[in-house]
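ARCHIVE CARD
Drawer: 12
Card no.: 0347
Subject: one protein chain, sequence and derived structure
Cross-reference: see card 0346
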Amino acid sequence: MTVRTTRTAPAPRPPAPASPVTLLILGAGWTYQFLEPVLGREKISHAATTTTGRGSTIPFRFDSDSDDLTPFQALPDADYVLVTFPLKGRGPSTKLVRLYNETRHGQLRDSRAPAEWGSGHEHEHGDDHSHFSEDTNVGVAGSAKWIQLGSTGIWTTAAWNDESSAVNGTNARAVAEDELIALGGCVLNLAGLYGGGRNPRNWIARVAGSKKQLGEKGALHLIHGHDVARAVVGVVRTDRDRLDPKSGPDELIDHVQNSDKNYNNYKNNDDDDNNNNSGNAKLRNHLDSDITGKDAGLEPVFGRRWIVADCVSYDWWSLVWDWMGESAEKRESERESEPASDHKTDQYDDRSTKTQYRRWVAELMDENNVRGLPRSTELLGRKLDARRFWKTIGILPDRSLAR
């Protein structure tokens, strides 16, 4: 009689980890279209994830309810980890950091500092690489530093707000951000995102579909995707340069100024930049002395949140007035290039809508005794001050909204 034995299938091997990188991007979404070319140009090694693993990305999905280490085993060791998706409430930030650290492969290069560092030298330079609170038990010396992309919606006070202003403590994203900050992370709270197919002009019908809604609109704050990428790279560069004892303030200033020149050259090739350098001239002149001062770039970047905006408080009423008007040049061009056709009705409807919006703005100005646009900042409600972030990383935003 033949006895058959059943062979137990071997347990599947965990996915092989990728090579160590400087920056790991968890979630290669909208921001990645701007971030990838900047990282390449700056020669910063990086890897990125998507939920499907499309292209050259690593398949990864974070489940805050799971302790499964498998999704993390394919992730490379990194000096910095950028989280682009929102984390909400208490717990997910700690879990994400813990699961990542538990699956590290002993290959962390820690390119932020020379190889001889790691035995007490960190404190001499004012930055503790362990940077995680002891009671969380999620951090180890030399582990990655974490950067979270957040939203400026957590500031709700109808006045000027900066990175030190109180946030809405009941906001689930703010709670998760505070948890990551307690672990030594850096949160970049982004203003309204535009570029890459996102045009604030297209938001009007959604956010101001009636005169009442328009009347409630105050300041609009924006940041172009290109400047989001520069902000992320600026955080990494500033942190690494500060941790390198060979780089003093003068070297850091030279680096950020040269980087800014390179970015300015690049921006001229972007067809969707909505760039308005003249609008930024006064801002650039005003801040240049601070950027090149002896304290440029010396403020800690991690362990806190930052407001990332283009340093302009746009007036919604003024924007709508501008966008719903038509320049004389455009009207003349239309008369010369568009003969009578079946499209006349569509053009009339479009102009009718524009006229309605302009009428609303005019009525609101009368009702609120506003003599001219844009309104004074005192009338715009909540406003965001992003100056200290740009000063800290030693560059200025490139893009402002074309009007």
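Annotation on reverse: The chain has two domains: 21-209+220-313+383-393, 316-379. The first strand starts at residue 21 and ends at 26.
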